[in-house]
Structures are given as structure tokens and as C-alpha cells.
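Hey, resending since the last one bounced:
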Amino acid sequence: MDIRLINIGFGNIVSANRVVAIVSPESAPIKRLITDARERGQLVDATYGRRTRAVIVMDFGHVILSAIQPETVANRFVTPKDTAPKDG
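The C-alpha cells again:
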């Protein structure tokens, strides 16, 4: 099993294999999700005091707040294919 790590800003890294969703924090259901995770002790605030722009939901129930856009985090999941030249 290949472990892939994704930078979510300010040197913070999450396991790409464990991410369920990356969403924007503006909607009421996501705000409730954040509040519930905080009450359960499963909220990780990786914003360094900046505005929350992305909410990352992990498969083990933790919720991670990031200060970078959801699109930026999602683009970091895309890995370039091996571009080494082939002999032939």
C-alpha cells in the first residue's frame, strides 16, 4: 500500500488515502459538522489563525480546517505520471 501525503498549508500534511471529502466551510451543515467535531475533540485547526477556507473530512471521523482553497488542496492530490523517457 502506497502512502501519499498532501500538504494542506503551512507545512501541515495529511494522508491522502484517508481523506473522504474536501469542502467549503460556508454552508450550515458543514458548520454543524465543525461544531460537532469540536465537541467530540476530533477537530484539528491547521489554519494558524487565518480564515478557514477548506474543511477536510477524514475517514476516521476527524475534521481538519485549512486556510487554503478546497480547489488547491484537491489539485495537490493529482500526481504527475512517470515522465521518464522510454528506451526504444
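The longest helix spans residues 28-40.

Sorry for the duplicate.
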